[in-house]
Design goal:
Blueprint: H1 2-10, E1 17-18, H2 19-25, H3 30-42, E2 46-49, E3 52-55, H4 57-64
Antiparallel strand pairs: 1-3, 2-3
InterPro entries: WH-like_DNA-bd_sf (IPR036388), WH_DNA-bd_sf (IPR036390)
Length: about 70
């Protein structure tokens, strides 16, 4: 899914990024963005804390997979 890749690319630096920051960069309605972030969290590709997310080592490995 393009949205998954876009979010992971945005947070690739392993720093915490606010949901609002991601919302400003990704053209998705809030409810859809929250669903995508929940999926990424359930798959252990991101950590979520206090309205912010950051990529995990598993998420970084996902980005390295060939297309």
């Amino acid at each position: 899914m393009e949205e998954l890749d876009s979010i992971l690319e945005l947070i690739r630096d392993s720093q915490w990024h606010s949901i609002e920051e991601i919302q400003g960069e990704i053209n998705l309605p809030s409810d859809k963005l929250n669903e995508v972030i929940l999926f990424l969290k359930e798959q252990a590709f991101v950590d979520k804390q206090n309205g912010s997310i950051r990529i995990t080592p598993a998420g970084l490995r996902l980005l390295e997979l060939p297309a």
